[in-house]
Write a structure and sequence with these properties.
With about 290 residues, the chain is mostly helical. Helix content is about 70%, strand content about 0%. Helix 11 runs antiparallel to helix 14. The longest helix has about 35 residues. It is globular.
Length: about 290
């Protein structure tokens, strides 16, 4: 009887995990189903789970035309928007890491007046909704000539990536024993040499994790990209609105575009999963 109860208690967490995974993955499965359905199958009621799949929606999204020549579409340059997102998000991550890593090290190692207030103020930019700053930011960008430019978008995305990078990297630097730096100082290393040859290699997994998560957050941003970009620099996320015309909503093509938009986050997470796990657990267990 006791053994049966123990088996039951072991099964319950597994069942709960499976249910959570199904709850999480079902929307992705549903969107993927829509992306390989014909327009008739997409709007059919009751919904179809068994149908003849088609790649026409992906053809329209990627090449702007249907293989069969019978699909309705709207004018949208999705590949260019995709490239815009890669340029803007990569630039935003590089800039935030170049600025954020030294700032995080300073907050972790040095004591100065107002340090915690400064750190909390920086973090508050990440907590604040984009709607609070979008209108004044739009006016400022228009006056400075930054509206609709790549460098303007990269600067605007610092509201997303920089606070996150500083706070996450600060924790990684704080987990490095200060005694290592003191010992290296005794051996003749300068503070710059200690930072470059000791601290940076130790927090390399944290840098990888921070960069990937920052890229994902920037990639998923909608409002800043929608308001502050022109058609030439529009990122991929707000470009999904282009599949909504005044006559109809092209659900299949929008779903195909959404699946393609999801790919960079998945690919990055898979390829650097080892560094991502090491970075997020860095310093979790201390001897």
């Amino acid at each position: 009887m006791l053994e049966r109860a123990l088996r039951l208690w072991r099964i319950i967490p597994v069942v709960g995990l499976v249910l959570i995974m199904m709850w999480t993955l079902f929307p992705i499965y549903w969107v993927f189903n829509m992306s390989i359905q014909t327009p008739i199958d997409v709007i059919s009621y009751p919904p179809k789970f068994v149908f003849d799949p088609t790649a026409e929606n992906y053809s329209v999204v990627l090449f702007g035309k249907s293989w069969l020549g019978k699909y309705e579409t709207v004018e949208t340059d999705f590949p260019r928007y995709y490239l815009n997102s890669i340029i803007v998000c990569s630039g935003a991550v590089v800039l935030s890491m170049l600025v954020g890593i030294p700032a995080a090290y300073s907050l972790a190692r040095y004591k100065f007046r107002g340090k915690e207030n400064f750190a909390f103020t920086l973090l508050s930019f990440r907590f604040a909704p984009s709607l609070i700053v979008i209108l004044p930011l739009f006016v400022i960008f228009r006056r400075l000539g930054l509206y609709g430019t790549y460098h303007g978008m990269i600067l605007a995305y610092q509201l997303i990536t920089l606070p996150f990078s500083v706070w996450l990297m600060r924790g990684f630097f704080e987990d490095i024993p200060i005694e290592l730096e003191h010992a290296a100082r005794i051996d003749g290393y300068s503070w710059w040499g200690i930072f470059r040859k000791i601290d940076l290699p130790l927090v390399a997994p944290g840098i990888a994790a921070t960069a990937v998560l920052s890229f994902i957050f920037a990639w998923n941003e909608f409002l800043l990209g929608y308001i502050l970009s022109s058609d030439a620099t529009r990122p991929v996320t707000p470009s999904l609105m282009g599949f909504i015309s005044y006559e109809q909503v092209l659900w299949g093509q929008m779903a195909a575009a959404a699946i393609i938009t999801l790919l960079p986050s998945v690919v990055l997470a898979i390829f650097i999963q080892r560094y991502l796990v090491r970075g997020l657990t860095f310093g979790a267990v201390k001897g």
